[in-house]
Design a protein that fits this description.
Blueprint (H helix, E strand, L loop, with lengths): L1 H11 L7 E5 L5 H8 L3 E6 L2 H12 L3 H4 L2 E5 L5 H4 L5 E7 L8 H10 L1 E12 L6 H5 L3 H7 L4 E3 L5 E3 L3 H10 L4 E7 L16 H11 L11 E7 L2
Parallel strand pairs: 1-2, 1-4, 2-3, 4-5
Antiparallel strand pairs: 5-9, 6-7, 8-9
Length: 233
Amino acid sequence: MARQLDEQIAGRFPVGQRLRVLDVGMGQGTQALRLARLGHQVTGVEQDATMIAAARAALAAEPEGIRERVRLVQGDGRDTGVHFLPGSFDVVLCHGVLMYVEEPDPLVAGLARMLAPGGLLSLLVRNGDALAMRPGLSGDWAGALAAFDTTAYRNRLGLDVRADRLSALTATLAGIAAPLHAWYGVRVFTDTAADDAELPQDLQTLLAVEERAGRTDPYRRVAALLHLCGVRG
């Protein structure tokens, strides 16, 4: 997904431009810190106290120049309008968040308002059109059968959450003046791997395969996750 995001940034902004990035629901700050290391000014928003503590600890271990480029805000991603002015950012990330939000459209609309004209909105969501894949490939036939007609699922943390369909999010992005520009699949072949599985020796080959599949039909359509990139008009 990082490679996909970098591809979209490189295609939209001049080389070397220091971008204003908002990462909503940043978790432990993986993407926020990665982008700060690349020279961008990053603001991370996270509601969970444990996650933002981990992000602060990771940031504290970075060199001073990188620390100066990162601002961390503890808060709800649905309240971006409280913290920031419309059009304040060139790139807005919202990765792995929408599945926890019962009504995602207001959140996505609020994120789009944070973008300057021509800005990039990056969403990572659970693929509601492929929920039967994981139970099916694991031999859980009853679970696979039930997954065909729903966007609800139980994640690896044991939480009951929701997925998004590509068609619905495409319509949402068009309706908020940030139409879909590109989309990718994420975790096409590796979704059934155990969380504690050892990394293979040919990791770079694995990543190359996933990257190729994530941009190629029909593979990307059955990926566990969808990475959607909208552009603010």
